[in-house]
């Protein structure tokens, strides 16, 4: 019998599942913190639960983490894990340690249907959505790893970004269930301003539904020009820049967040001229926003190259001069293909190592 993972279970789920095997609501209430606060990986460790329940639970349910097929460490300390789910499908997730925070980048789909031209994941076809339990499993995986990462300046996860493989808003139901668990003060207790969901430009009702969580929104914009954007990101044919900016303004209103972040990959000779910067400044003027400039990280087979640092600085100066809050985001983990747009979700087997 296939055991059901409890990694994505909330109170109502657990009560329903427990009732089916003759356990009570009180049993569910006592087990829930073991899953989402103490984050144990075995029912045996639930020491205040009666022995017979600890024996019964593993007959039906599992707290198993996905198999780590490969763990790589970048020269800057960034870690990338290739995780495999019981059906054999694989995704990548990234841990980015910093002096002030530890950030985890999460995937929401196996493969991706969006086909952004600059993205390595976009070359893979879409396979399937991750379940809530599979999204949460990435958080559990990194929480389990923390005690082994001795060099960290603080031993906890502080920030989560949904910027890994897949388009989060095309898996909105499972994403929202995971957000409930992550934000719940009696469960994972992440702060709402420490969670960011990034979209390639899905300006649907799901985006506005997400506003109820009050989390940060990042939009992959990459150019202020509709024709260029449609070339780079086919989704622009459905939701053009105007539609996207209207949706961003509406999200700001509904979510009461301070600003929306626009991600802008600097691609040499494509979107990095002074004219591109001026067009972007004009487009974003009056919107509560921040622009993250990211110098494109090349990957094998990519036809694009990243802008020079000098070009990036000139682009930055132009935006700042026009009053647009802008930074050049430090790229992390590019030597292990863990940086933005480099995740692929398939690799040769290398035994996990953290040294
Ligand atoms: S950038 Fe994001 S949305 Fe676009 S193809 Fe890559 S993973 Fe998909």
Structure description:
The chain is an alpha/beta fold. The protein folds into two domains: 4-62, DNA polymerase, domain 1, CATH 1.10.150.530; 67-336, TIM Barrel (Alpha-Beta Barrel). Helices cover 31% and strands 18% of the residues. The protein is built from ten helices and 14 strands. The protein has helices spanning 11-20, 25-36, 51-60, 132-145, 172-183, 205-210, 226-232, 241-255, 274-284, 309-321, and strands at residues 4-5, 61-62, 67-73, 79-84, 90-97, 102-105, 109-110, 128-129, 159-162, 195-199, 216-220, 260-266, 289-295, 326-328. Residues 346-355 have low confidence and may be disordered. The protein binds iron/sulfur cluster. The site of iron/sulfur cluster (SF4) has 12 residues, from loops. Iron/sulfur cluster binds next to loops.
